[in-house]
Known about the structure:
This protein is of the alpha/beta class. It has two domains: 142 residues, HAD superfamily/HAD-like (Rossmann fold, 3-Layer(aba) Sandwich); 83 residues, Four Helix Bundle (Hemerythrin (Met), subunit A) (Up-down Bundle). It has eight helices and seven strands. The chain has a seven-stranded mixed beta sheet, sandwiched between helices. α8 links the parallel β5 and β6. It starts with a strand and ends in a 10-residue tail after the last strand. The relative contact order is 0.18.
Amino acid sequence: MRFNRAISPIKVLSFDLDDTLYNNHPIILGAIKAMHNYLQAIPEWAAKGGDYWLECRHHIGETQPHLQSDVTQWRKVALTYGLSHLNLTTEEITRHTHGAYQAFADARSQITVADSVLTLLDNLAQKYTLIAITNGNVEVDKFNLAGVFKKVYLAGPDGEAKPSDALFQRACRDLGIVPAQILHIGDSLDTDVQGANHAGCQSVWLNNQDTTYDYKGLADIEISDIHQLQALC
Length: 233
């Protein structure tokens, strides 16, 4: 654990979810595969070829950029867009949009957080209020993070995605605290650390991804393993 700045008193620990508390890479690949398997069973979709989904997603991202802060709606709108350009009825478009997204969502929540991480969170909860602030759309009530957090803030329904300060400000309003009383922990310099710093919160960078970031600011604390947070207990 490396301290880049002195930490002022905190009341709330805010956690990013994907790739912070569990490895999300195989999960998201499995969810995408489940969605594609559903879509490939539709002859009209399969006839479009392998790049059709990416073309639909890109088109919606370009023409409706506000949806990029709400990955659930982005995916649903892109599915509806793609299906509407096939020779399908309105009922079929609605049914397949729901079916394809549900295949994705069900696989998206096939997560098991390690017992050691759950123990760490339980220990931290004895001293701090725990919340989650995520740009993703994982449903924590469907796996073993259910009940761990006082509140889970999702980009889209609860505010603009990180690095916007919207989700952090929403948490402060809900909890009746000032931003400096939140310590946010996440794996991304670009979204988590930049967002927390911009909001006036304190930040922890979990530096365990082989990734290049654009943001050049410093987190208050840098760790290489989530279990190093035990030092905060």
